[in-house]
Amino acid sequence: xxxxxxxxxxxxxxxxxxxxxxxxxxxxxxxxxxxxxxxxxxxxxxxxxxxxxxxxxxxxxxxxxxxxxxxxxxxxxxxxxxxxxxxxxxxxxxxxxxxxxxxxxxxxxxxxxxxxxxxxxxxxxxxxxxxxxxxxxxxxxxxxxxxxxxxxxxxxxxxxxxxxxxxxxxxxxxxxxxxxxxxxxxxxxxxxxxxxxxxxxxxxxxxxxxxxxxxxxxxxxxxxxxxxxxxxxxxxxxxxxxxxxxxxxxxxxxxxxxxxxxxxxxxxxxxxxxxxxxxxxxxxxxxxxxxxxxxxxxxxxxxxxxxxxxxxxxxxxxxxxxxxxxxxxxxxxxxxxxxxxxxxxxxxxxx
Length: 351
Description:
Blueprint: H1 15-23, E1 34-37, E2 42-44, E3 58-61, H2 64-69, E4 73-74, H3 85-99, H4 106-113, H5 117-128, H6 132-150, H7 154-160, H8 166-177, E5 192-198, E6 205-209, E7 214-219, H9 223-229, E8 234-236, H10 240-254, H11 270-280, E9 288-289, H12 290-296, H13 303-311, E10 324-325, H14 338-348
Parallel strand pairs: 2-4, 5-8, 9-10
Antiparallel strand pairs: 1-2, 1-3, 5-6, 6-7
């Protein structure tokens, strides 16, 4: 199994993304699928160094077993059924990081793989998009998020996630998680959230914010939906500070422009947050395909996972998931309906 599947649970890419990976000889996609060449009767890794076949002669398969069932045989040049030494080393290192209470150091990981530290660092980052240290931090962050949702107290969550103490936990996660960590235990217990539903040209809009920033922006929702997200948070009418924030949000929705200055309080997996950051880089009036976003975050095979991250976005417009369309230019989906998505795109393009 390619180590990328151990990071963000990427789904299979579409055929256009697969073909781009083949043309780029993208080694990161080895293990995600194989390329069947019907004219020669063989199947290859995406990174196979052989001359590229004509696109019309290519069919993609999930793995070698599926290709063999279709009557194809493995390429002798790239040996698609054999995990390379590098793939095995990266997979073993990723497993070691996940299994360890304290992440092994780079020197130890490299020695176990039989590489120098510098070379192993390059191999690991090329395969996963992260250094071993960053991968370890991401793993610990995922454990922290899970522990905070399940533990009886923040202290329990700190040690369950593998941190040596509260100070380490807050230093590593306070900025990323947005709300104080206790807000993520027991359905938002301890969080104060100001909220309002306001009329807009796109219909009723719910805006909710903690003292750190907007934590929910949606259309056609009200208190019941917000309370379902944060059932134990304290919901209240905001004061002057919230009123000013609310007016800025309304302006960002009604008038095309850049809402990046509006503070947000959102949280997701490392992969989701990478996608959301990339969405905020799309200029108003422009769009990107799901495949382009997946490639931009360093995981070109995770096209469907990218779509799922779009769908998990809790802050419409300010994290502009409406600017992501299908590869053929069609709108694709949108949580609040295609009419709202089209209206947002039209006004941003000056229509």
